[in-house]
Fold this sequence. Notes:
single chain; 8-stranded antiparallel beta sheet; alpha+beta
Amino acid sequence: MIKPLSISLATFALAGSLATSAMADEGANREDIDSLLRSAGEYGFSQFEEFSVDDDDQFEIEGWRDDGWQLDVDMATSDGSILREQQRRSETPDWSLSADDIDRALDSAQQAGIEHIASLDVDPMGRIEVEGYDDRFRELEVRLNRETFEVLGVEHDD
């Protein structure tokens, strides 16, 4: 019998306290995103499909555990509490991103001008998109190559 994976509030307490002040409509800074992603790893995520910082104080993460279970978790950035969690049996796709892949993608997005990260996702074709804001809080979308993490395009939404 497989037990549902649950998590204590303590696991996300540090991430929630670090992220509270920086999370807003303008995304989050890299330090806060890194902290939240470390907490996601502690939760059990080993591969990622997407994550986003929502306007209503939520960090949403979708991905997989090592055993192939697909995870979909929403947590409050203010206090680290789990707002919603879902799991289903699945297989981890080759195109998913590891924590190291996400780190490389975020490095490339920052080099392309993103200062505040709103979301990152990868699709089955291996296209990575990072959305966020530059240092003047103008919206940016950065498209990356999945294999090399090279910037393929930057779109400014003025």
